[in-house]
Specification:
The structure holds 2 protein chains of 2 kinds.
Chain A (H helix, E strand, L loop, with lengths): L18 H33 L5 H15 L3 H15 L8 H26 L3 H9 L4 H31 L11 H12 L2 H30 L10
Chain B lengths: L9 H37 L4 H15 L3 H16 L4 H28 L2 H9 L4 H31 L11 H11 L3 H33 L1
Helix pairs in contact in B: 1-2, 1-4, 1-6, 1-7, 2-4, 3-4, 4-6, 5-6, 6-8, 7-8
The chains are: A mainly alpha, B mainly alpha.
């Protein structure tokens, strides 16, 4: 029906940059956004998840409200919120580049999902452990630091790797605020070169490779942190 | 900075916001119904003893789940005119995309649902002389649906949130409505604050509803 023509990749866009070069920069942007967003999501999601398992009702409330807010607003709306609204309401954000705003939006959105996983992970630890640590005279902080979190951390890491893959996929919404990541590249280059199939194929392929790399990493991580005799643990 | 919501007249609400909202709801409901039907077939194929059916279903689900939804939206929008020779428009394109995309997610849920039904139930059905489709239709699937109802509904809330991504091809959904307001009245701050509030209220109420249903299903069991 149609033949594929990849010659556009070596054509020049501006100056000496080719479409292939631009593609690689776009891929790098996608991975960088995802990495930074994951760091934010992991830090805040872990904190909020832990808050929700404490006995302190204010901390539980903060964790619950946080999770409900960021889980119940579509990620694209959150991107617009950070891009159009926050810099006007809080001038401090107007100094940030749009890249950083997208990272924050994506990070906060994902933090609500990580908070759910962390909460579920901590609650799956038998309550005996919490009571035993309190009976030994540990403070709440100490019982989290020395008893609950070391186990919880190893329990929730495997499901978190699927969030890492989600974050790469979700980073595609950054196209809406004109960040030159892979999806933006796909839309832009499709219009410029009219080689839609080829452009989409290669961009989709790069998303596949990215997901595959995260998957490989996660298998390695899962193996090294597995708890023997525990859920999912072998031997 | 002063917020000014005076652009929000009845006419704007009717012509722009409601038009968008109705399309978002229509898209969600159609994709939910068709997606669950297609997803159930995919789940049955996935669990089938015929290797070719199960590998096809596995490949479909795995591929769809590893591509960003925005890319799937773009793909379908690009491919439809190539295959049928004319464009179907952004709205039909969106409906087809979401049905195909969500089917992969519903398929995984239905697979877990089918597997949550005890094997004895299916065996009892076969012992009564039912064939595969009777056994699935009368014995296994009704129980699988009820077990998975909360998860299916939660996925539908995700689906509703995801419909905002039709922004990529410019279909007129709820979010597009707010972006039109933002441009027409040059009030992006107010428009997107409203968008956030409206989406939050809808999704939060639906999540609350799912929680209620979850408790009910649990009591019945």
């Amino acid at each position: 029906m149609f033949t594929l023509d990849w010659s556009f990749l070596s054509k020049k866009v501006v100056g000496s940059q080719t479409y292939l070069g631009w593609l690689m920069t776009a891929w790098e942007t996608t991975l960088t956004i995802s990495l930074f967003a994951f760091i934010i999501a992991f830090a805040l999601g872990f904190l909020m998840g832990v808050f929700r398992t404490t006995q302190n009702k204010y901390l539980v409330l903060i964790g619950n409200v946080w999770t409900e807010i960021f889980r119940n607003i579509p990620v694209l709306v959150q991107i617009f919120l950070w891009y159009f609204v926050m810099p006007k309401l809080f001038p401090i954000f107007s100094k940030l580049p749009s890249f950083a705003l997208a990272v924050i939006a994506l990070g906060l959105f994902t933090s609500s999902r990580i908070s759910e996983q962390v909460r579920a992970g901590i609650q799956s630890i038998p309550t005996d452990q919490r009571y035993a640590s309190l009976a030994l005279g540990l403070t709440t902080y100490q019982s989290y630091r020395f008893v609950l979190l070391p186990v919880a951390f190893r329990l929730v890491l495997p499901p978190l790797t699927s969030e890492a893959m989600n974050i790469i996929k979700n980073s595609s919404v950054a196209f809406a605020v004109s960040i030159a990541e892979l999806t933006m590249y796909a839309i832009q280059v499709q219009e410029e070169t009219a080689r839609g199939i080829e452009v989409y194929l290669i961009v989709t392929g790069l998303y596949f490779i990215s997901a595959f790399i995260v998957n490989l990493l996660s298998i390695l991580i899962e193996k090294s942190i597995q708890i023997p005799h525990f859920i999912g643990g072998r031997k | 900075m002063n917020l000014d919501f005076s652009f929000l007249t009845l006419k704007v609400i009717n012509n722009i916001i409601l038009t968008g909202l109705i399309f978002s709801i229509k898209l969600t409901l159609i994709a939910m119904v068709l997606g669950i039907i297609l997803g159930t077939f995919l789940a049955m194929m996935r669990l089938s003893r015929f290797k070719i059916l199960s590998s096809f279903a596995l490949a479909y689900v795995t591929i769809i789940r590893s591509i960003p939804l925005v890319m799937v939206i773009l793909w379908v929008f690009l491919l439809i005119p190539l295959f049928i020779g004319r464009s179907l428009g952004t709205e039909y394109s969106a409906i087809i995309t979401f049905t195909l995309f969500e089917a992969a997610f519903y398929a995984e849920i239905m697979r877990a649902g089918i597997q949550s039904v005890k094997r004895d139930q299916a065996n009892a059905g076969y012992a009564l002389g039912m064939n595969y489709f009777q056994c699935m239709g009368y014995v296994v699937l009704p129980q699988a649906f009820r077990n998975m109802l909360p998860v299916l509904l939660t996925q539908t809330i995700v689906l509703f949130q995801d419909t905002s991504l039709v922004y990529a091809i410019g279909a007129f959904d709820l979010l597009k409505g707010f972006s039109i307001i933002s441009k027409n009245f040059n009030r992006p701050v107010e428009a997107y604050i409203l968008a956030t509030i409206v989406y939050f209220i809808i999704c939060f109420s639906l999540s609350y509803l799912v929680k209620r249903i979850q408790n009910r299903v649990r009591i019945v069991r």
